[in-house]
Amino acid sequence: CVVIVPIDFFSISLRIFLMAWLLSMVGVWLSRIGIRQIFASCAWWGFPVLVMGAGKTGELVIRTLKRQPGLGFKPVAVLDDDAQKHGTLEDIPVLGQLSLAPYVAQELNVSYAIVAMPGVPREKLLSILERYGKTFPHLLVIPDLFGFASLWVGAIDMGGILGLEIRQRLLLPGPRLIKTALDWLLTVIVGILALPLFLIIIVAVKLDSPGPVFYGQYRLGRGARPFIAWKFRTMVTDADWILEKHLSQSATLREQWERGRKLKQDPRITRVGRILRRTSLDELPQLWNVLRGEMSLVGPRPIVDDEITHYADTFELYKRVPPGITGLWQVSGRSDVTYSERVTLDAYYVRNWSVWLDVYILLKTVWVVLVGDGAY
């Protein structure tokens, strides 16, 4: 019996295999995200968690867990030895001192505890771990490196000494090359597909109000070098004068502006501009900045010189990469995110970059734009 196999059989099979493998990788990843989001909306989803520490760290931990229910943790109570800390923390009751932990574990059926006291002395921290380690099968300790947001942390045993190796992915040449290639490829594809939309927006902006179609703003790029970030014009031509007049009428408005450089009711924005901002379509011209290598599709938020002080030591990390059209802060609440949270999210992105993180942010950006979440 002789079996004749066409010469191109194996090449076709290989193409089919590679395509199936790629689709399955993306499909499984998207399915996990979808299932987690569906489960997160169910009342029974998540493990009850006790937070030890009612300070700023504990507050941020609770806020993060409530904002991201897909993580699977539901804060139910807070304990702290400081008698002045009582009432609630982010709507979670502060029940009393740490000594109540066994009682809380039994009454609320809690098996997870988060020790959110990074500034506590070493001796006290070890005492807490020893005392309550038998009460909670799962103890998560927020280290003294709190605020140094990184997923790529590996524990290394150095002869019985615990070491933490922190890798900052986007500073490595390999990942940066991959990211640049993806930026070019996706930008060309999106630019071609969005060409009809470009033409529609150009006509709409021109008919809505007098002035140029495009608006350029100086921003800081990689190496803190200034460049012009392009947008569709969304404001009237005498915007600076109108803003100053508006802010001079209310101290509350000026405080809101200085806090995040945004106003919920901005008198400078045109009718078409409100639509463009709500959908983030005003940033489409920044695809040109990406092709020029001044920006990336995904990255930290572009900033100006006046904002450097908000970044403090993190600015040294920030300026090592190009800013992005979209990023973690845009898909984490956009204008509803505080400035300090923006800085943390930017640092988190640089340290934890991966192709899949970029894919997640791009897909989440589409969803956020469609629902207009946190935009003004």
What does this protein structure show overall?
- This protein is an alpha/beta fold and 376 residues long.
- The chain folds into 3 domains: 47-146, Rossmann fold (3-Layer(aba) Sandwich), CATH 3.40.50; 171-234 and 272-371, no CATH class; 237-268, no CATH class.
- It contains 14 helices and 12 strands.
- The protein has helices at residues 9-40, 56-67, 101-107, 122-132, 173-193, 195-208, 239-247, 251-260, 271-279, 286-291, 308-311, 315-318, 339-352, 355-371; strands at 47-52, 73-79, 87-89, 92-96, 112-115, 138-141, 153-158, 161-166, 214-220, 226-232, 296-298, 324-326.
- The strands form 4 sheets. The protein has a 6-stranded mixed β-sheet, with helices on both faces. The chain has a two-stranded antiparallel ribbon with strand order 7-8.
- A hairpin with a 2-residue loop joins strand 7 and strand 8 (161-166).
- It is globular and about 70 Å long.
- The termini are far apart.
- The model has no long low-confidence stretch (mean pLDDT 82).
